[in-house]
């Protein structure tokens, strides 16, 4: 049928109306969008960040702990964020980021028109449209995406407005830096620096191309593409290789390099930032206590409030050497795991395990006391629960995670009663270890226990235990100082009694030697090396306990509650390892006491030094006395219980093969030291030193009734000395540490003879002949 002119005109008119309607709708749509953007910009839908906020985004910055050798040791934080500057980011990290997340980043003004059009056209199936600047806007200023379409639209508008403002106020480099500083890589790794520290134990600038790609791969989804999670390792590898592909596509990597790197598996060096995990956990907790007290008195000029340890971005420069701390922890854990296995094996034959020498009633009282000191007891008491109900709850089995040397990550899930768990934890042997540079007082390593998560108590500074024979050098040094004794002076080791009433003694005191071998004549050096209690008693009778206590106080040991009695000669006083190491440092440092130092300086987030350590040193001992005492202690490692540091004497003993790590040590250099073992083997000590490093080790049960039955296993030479030996063997393997193998420095004006052959000649004796005769302590020549 023919189309009339009227129909054609009507059709044209209809098309005009449709086109007009389309443009009207389009104009209304554009106008609506513009209006919505204007309303969002006018803050009708909520406040937008102002200029000041954009210039200074309020993020919480972690306080970071940095070791003497420049390694991150840990952080104190609400959010573990440690900012980094653009210049400290490697170029390949920037290339990987831009190639993967925002190819046109350097060209657009915050909104990628091409990417947005593509996302709309393909409904998001051909890739997202968010630029790096938009992602930064999300991180800083917008909430989590809403499921409501209208609200999501408003969020998107706010995000675009913020993005445009960010682009106006920041350079592209600043935007990248802020984005990488703000992103949460999970596992307390907030920001690229924390992520580099935690996943690779490196600073960002040290990252390899592959490592940078791994971190960039995580930006898409840090949990789904996480290299530390077993379930996501393969996805992490594939996503990393996709980053390589994007870098090739953008001309930042060749095809050959991509193929080579893609064939390499991901290797991480995961270092947890959890307060209970990672390196130096006990040291960090001690440091936290010190910093908390310090911060109370130091005002932050930006806030006019005391510095906040958790979000003011402080940098704490500490004396710990990361390498030495790692070696110390390795030595401690390797030995303690083996020693515990031997202890557990021996306890299988003990009906009262893990206790020894306790009656049933004493064990019951011990367990009740431990129950009332437990966290469970305190929490239930706080809630007002009746004591009978609390006691009953300790007999009800419950799910719990316990420490176990043999388990993965040293803990396992189990079901047991709280009372059984108390007894279970009583069986563990514990340790403290501290290493100090005597010339400066700088603490180089600090290990307060076997596992901070399950055993919070710090055995370096908080714990005080009987020192045993490690106390004897204080007695000997007093005799050297007051009586001018030579290490070559001879004594009989026959039984010796200090009568009641003398030196404040309430009863006759006749100490015994552990081997019961008497009737010998030996030098003071031999007596200390063999830890002869009888000769220590003679020396104590000659000098008196008060001068010994005075000497100990001068060396920095707390003497407030120390009993001034002759038995101090055997180390009956309770002392901390922290104070013992500092005191021994005086011997190595020619009589100068340096108070132990943990922190050298503190910087604020801008790098301004707000605390600078001032050394606390004092002369407390004649250099001659210090040197002669060191000479005495060198005998311990040559002819005494420390001689196992030298040779291979116990290699055929199955115990040493199975329990003692890194044996034989086979040290050739001069080493001064002293072992210590307390009654019933409850405490094992070893204090060892070379000219520029003093290290002390203590091992024992938290309860003194938890100990080895035989001295072979429970003595300091077995429990503590192997940790020192293993530690020093590792240290000497790293020549960059510059730990001395040289002899101790001898004073130029030394008047006390330390050469025993020369000493004997000075007495008119020929050391090559048998001139043995009763020792006359009144002989004036003995005073040389």
Account of the protein in words:
It is a single chain. With 784 residues, the protein is an alpha+beta fold. It folds into four domains: 81-272, Biosynthetic peptidoglycan transglycosylase-like (Penicillin binding protein transpeptidase fold, Orthogonal Bundle); 317-351 and 427-467 and 575-744, 3-Layer(aba) Sandwich (Beta-lactamase); 355-421, no CATH class; 469-572 and 753-784, 3-Layer(aba) Sandwich (Beta-lactamase). It has a five-stranded mixed beta sheet with strand order 2-1-5-15-16, with helices on one face. The radius of gyration is 35 Å and the shape is elongated. The model is unreliable at 119-127 and 770-784 (pLDDT under 50).
The CATH homologous superfamily name of the largest domain equals: DD-peptidase/beta-lactamase superfamily
Estimate the strand proportion.
Answer: 5-15%
Distance between the termini: 142 Å
Strand count: 20
The CATH architecture term of the largest domain is: 3-Layer(aba) Sandwich
Number of helices, counting only DSSP H or I runs of 4 residues or more: 29
Task: Please give the share of residues in helix.
Answer: 40-55%
Overall shape: it is elongated
